[in-house]
Amino acid sequence: QSSGSSGINAEYGGFEDALPRSRAGHASAVVNSRLYIISGRDGYHRAYNNQTCFKDMWFLETDKPPVPNRVQLIRASTSTLEICWIPVATADAYLLQIQRLDNSDVHEWYDVAVVKGNSLVVSHHHSKPSSEELDENKPIERLELSPGTTYRFRIAAINACGRGDFSEPAAFKTCVPGFPGAPSSIRISKGNDGAHLAWDPPANSNGNISEYSVYLAIKNSQSTESPSSLAFVLVYRGDSPSCTVKTTSLQNAHVDQTNKPAIIFRIAAKNEKGYGPATQVRWLQDTKTSSNKRPVDKMS
User: Fold this and answer.
1) DSSP of the chain, one letter per residue?
2) pLDDT tens string for the chain (300 positions)?
């Protein structure tokens, strides 16, 4: 078992200084795989009438973090892929790995970084496969992402008990030079006539944007929860960076059950050279409320 606390200061000189002193009368509660220890009285002064009561809270990690959901794409450019993922409650950090998909029969995984947050703009990765041991006497070289190339990502959560299992891989492609990037800042709201979508043009348009296309994931008896196997239909094509998807179309939508129920849209932009990569977004479906406002999953 390992311990942690919001009260531990990284500047403490020794491990013993960072541990709570002995105390009595505290309470504890188990949440998921963490055991939280709350407050208590200072055991050193229990003989006095004015005992010191604490207001801090500590926890013990009892297990490695669970498997995270697959990585999602925020936006793509010719040399970067901005990705994100839904946070894991018991994770302190995440190990992100990448795999280049090409005509080779061998596809190695490479370390990208250990990340504290839940998003990252990936522009490079380590040049040595993660299966090989690093030579501490040699500097770690970096390999930049290539334009028009498909990469797969997987992520594992880390806490004081160690590293958990990796997520299912998710594949994304960098932009081909000359094509537009992916639309960003997707906004979705519920209206009486359906779902109202709006978005910002790609940061890298590489020319004038002539039109946008919006696709909706629909029910398919052959599909699974994997985004690569979902069936999508075109629900909008036009030059305006906004549209309304009618209620009749939403009735046929596939509801993704990953983490929280959500309807999936893909939005892509077109310039003189053609269509660039699509931005995929999950529109969360709250079945417990009749509110007209339903949030977009910002982790997608």
Assistant:
1) -EEEETT--TT-SSTGGGSPPPEES-EEEEETTEEEEEEEEEGGGTTSSSPPEEEEEEEEE-S---PPPPPEEEEE-SS-EEEE-PPPTT-SEEEEEEEEESS-S----EEEEEESSSEEEE-EEESSBTTSPP-TTSPPPEEEPPTT-EEEEEEEEEETTEEEEEPPPEEEEPPPTTS----EEEEEEEETTEEEEEEEPPS--SS---EEEEEEEE--TT--S-GGG-EEEEEEEESSSEEEEEHHHHTTB-EE-SSS-EEEEEEEEE-SS-B-PPEEEEEE--TT---S---EETT-
2) 444 444 333 443 444 555 656 666 677 888 878 888 877 666 555 555 566 666 777 788 889 999 999 898 888 888 899 999 999 988 999 999 999 987 776 688 999 999 999 999 999 998 888 877 766 777 778 899 998 899 999 999 999 899 999 999 999 888 888 888 889 889 999 999 999 999 999 888 888 899 999 999 998 765 455 555 678 999 999 999 999 999 999 998 998 887 788 999 999 999 988 998 888 888 988 765 444 545 565 443
